[in-house]
Specification:
Blueprint (H helix, E strand, L loop, with lengths): L19 E13 L3 E8 L2 E8 L5 H6 L5 E10 L14 E12 L16 H6 L1 H4 L3 H23 L3 E2 L17 E3 L7 E3 L5 H9 L4 E9 L12 E10 L3 H18 L9 E2 L6 E3 H7 L14 E2 L1 H4 L5 H8 L3 E7 L7 H13 L7 E5 L2 E3 L1 H5 L2 H11 L6 E7 L1 H18 L7 E2 L1 E5 L4 E3 L7 E3 L10 H7 L9 E6 L2 E8 L4 H10 L4 H15 L6 E4 L3 H9 L29 H6 L9 H9 L5
Parallel strand pairs: 3-5, 6-9, 11-18, 12-19
Antiparallel strand pairs: 1-2, 1-4, 2-3, 4-5, 7-8, 9-10, 10-24, 13-14, 14-17, 15-16, 15-17, 19-22, 20-21, 22-23, 23-24
Helix pairs in contact: 4-6, 4-17, 14-15, 15-16
């Protein structure tokens, strides 16, 4: 017989009754039923109920062992009778009558309980993450993550992609966040950067002639944490393809993403529906108009309408003034809300003020006509025009967001989400995908009047190529850039790449870079392009966000094996940590540390580079 186990704790069934077996695992739970001691023994595979009679020679050892101690038990498999069968367990038809017991590793008193669903502070959970991961929900989440990655890898290979690994020690690149830097001992005063993404390397792989590349890539960004973003490292499905158009990229990755979501759609116990066919394509400008966001949640049926023209030179002075000054007014329908009590509208008005808006105007289209403060002060024909533009019926209401374009459309998006939640309009048990396309190539630099910045990925191909760069207003130029969005969460950014040195230099020139600066910063890639580069494009869906959605978890830490906390600290391993003075010396560095309070503040909310 094996020293530790003949079976796992999830393997025994009714057919094994009468067999002598050996199991090893953790003491999940103990119950003393007066004359019988029950031990639920748990390992990676499941749980088996073990029974120790009071007269057994091992009863004393079994009674003394603490929860989460690791033990090995040997005994006979016994079938349970009808009243004691546990249908919730795969092993619930049998139990193990223990004849031998040995303690492999005794556990101290636990700082957090493993059995049960008790909630614990995040600090405790992360400090004792190895215990937290023994809990059923956390264990299942991480097994889901493993299954998702295996499924993605299989699907990518089936699509003709080849897996490669790109360097982790590289040069800094302008990805929009702060790099993690690694000092070089052999080259004093110089630093490597951990990759924010394998962007340039995957493009160089295309130049090297590898047609379809992918990897499950670790990425590193020194940025503040959010619920859907880790503060230090994350993983993405990074891929690139040669000789492709934007639609070719979509056709390659849609079956992979949709297939994974279908495969694991019932993970939470409720089967969720997944889009069939092509994901909808929504232009960036349309997304901002109709949804108030470039990450629209398509489970929400509400669509926003621009009604600026209906308030221009109208009797409603506040909105008329906004329209005259170049602002916008957006209408957000509220289906079936006309008959809601006054408190419903007052509550939304208070929420709007808490969000920094002046308030939230509305019109109620009751059965006997339009009502509300705006309807009283706006010409009847304009009220009717708004109703028709928004496709509203008697019994519906409409709310308004007004102001400068960027602020008003963003607030309209927040109102849309709030209304859908208040009115319970969000589609249940569904994953709804879309592509956001036609992103603007450039945006205004808020810190530099008249200045222009890249609005997305600087290595993207502008629509219209060199001619567009030379002849169009930069703010009107669109790029071959695209995002995958699912249920209001951005899964991926991607683009058809700018593979022409002349177009790249001109594109960076518009953003304020000289040709020499471009050569200095991106010379490796530019030089490669000068020796024949294929048109190419790709994307990089986030693994962590995919798993978070499938697990229906609110925070990315719930699907990460050993995450950092919100201050980018590893409480379990004590990182980041000081280094010995000798290490500073061998790296030719000298510490110049800020006061402790300033250092803590910087760690909490690092600024983007």
């Amino acid at each position: 017989m094996h020293a530790y186990r003949t079976h796992t704790c999830g393997a025994l069934r009714a057919a094994d009754a009468g067999s002598t077996v050996r199991l090893s695992g953790w003491v999940h739970r103990k119950r003393d039923h007066g004359g019988l001691l029950f031990i639920d023994l748990r390992d990676h595979y499941g749980l088996t109920q073990c029974v120790v009679p009071s007269g057994s020679p091992v009863f004393g050892a079994a009674d003394a062992v603490r929860p989460e101690s690791v033990i090995t038990v040997t005994g006979q498999v016994v079938a349970r009778d009808g009243a004691t069968i546990n249908p919730r367990l795969p092993t619930g038809e049998v139990e193990l009558r223990v004849a031998e017991l040995s303690v492999q590793s005794a556990a101290d008193v636990l700082p957090i309980q493993v059995a049960g669903d008790q909630e614990f502070p995040e600090e405790l959970r992360l400090r004792y993450r190895f215990l937290d991961l023994r809990r059923e929900k956390q264990h299942r989440n991480l097994m889901l993550r493993s299954g998702v990655i295996a499924s993605i890898r299989r699907r990518m290979i089936d699509q003709g992609f080849t897996e490669f690994q790109t360097p982790l020690l590289t040069a800094s690149s302008p990805e929009g966040a702060r790099d993690f830097l690694v000092p070089s001992r052999l080259h004093p005063g110089k630093f490597y950067a951990l990759p924010q993404a394998p962007q340039m390397f995957k493009q160089l792989a295309m130049v090297a002639g590898f047609d379809r590349y992918f990897q499950i890539a670790p990425c590193f960004r020194d940025e503040a944490a959010r619920a859907d973003r880790s503060p230090g490292e994350f993983y993405q499905l990074d891929f690139e393809m040669s000789f492709v158009t934007q639609e070719d990229v979509f056709a390659a990755i849609e079956p992979v993403i949709a297939g994974v979501f279908r495969e694991f759609a019932d993970f939470t116990g409720t089967r969720k529906t997944v889009d069939e066919g092509h994901f909808p394509r929504i232009a960036y400008d349309t997304a901002m108009l109709e949804y108030g966001s470039d990450k629209p949640d398509l489970r929400n049926p509400i669509k926003i309408t621009d009604v600026t023209q209906h308030f221009a030179e109208s009797g409603f002075g506040l909105f008329a003034k906004i329209a005259a000054s170049g602002g916008i007014i957006r209408a957000i329908p509220a289906p079936g809300a006309a008959d809601k009590p006054r408190g419903f509208f007052d509550k939304l008005n208070e929420w709007a003020r808490a969000e920094g808006a002046g308030g939230l105007g509305y019109i109620q289209f009751a059965q006997d006509g339009a009502k509300g403060p705006i309807a009283k002060n706006l010409e009847a024909d304009r009220v009717e025009a708004i109703r028709a533009a928004c496709g509203l019926n008697p019994g519906d209401a409409v709310f308004f967001a007004a102001g400068k374009k960027e602020d008003a459309q963003k607030f309209a998006g927040a109102v849309r989400t709030r209304l859908a939640n208040e009115l319970d309009l969000i589609e249940k048990d569904a994953f709804r995908f879309c592509w956001i396309v036609d992103f603007p190539m450039y945006e205004e630099n808020e810190d530099k009047p008249g200045g222009i910045d890249f609005s997305h990925n600087p290595f993207s191909m502008p629509q219209g190529g060199l001619e567009a760069l030379n002849s169009m207003n930069p703010l009107d130029i669109k790029a071959f850039q695209y995002d995958i969005v699912c249920n209001g969460i951005e899964l991926s950014s991607g683009a058809i790449r700018n593979h022409r040195p002349d177009i790249m230099i001109r594109a960076f020139e518009i953003a304020g870079y000289t040709a020499d600066e471009v050569e200095e910063r991106f010379g490796g890639m530019l030089n490669a392009f000068r020796y024949g580069a294929p048109p190419h494009g790709g994307s990089a869906p986030g693994i962590d966000r995919i798993v978070m959605l499938l697990a229906d978890e609110p925070n990315i830490r719930e699907v990460t094996l050993f995450p950092l906390n919100q201050q980018a600290e590893d409480l379990m391993m004590g990182a980041p940590a000081p280094i010995e003075p000798s290490r500073w010396k061998e790296l030719f560095l000298k510490p110049d540390l800020p006061p402790a309070k300033d250092a803590a503040k910087g760690a909490t909310a690092p600024k983007k580079a």
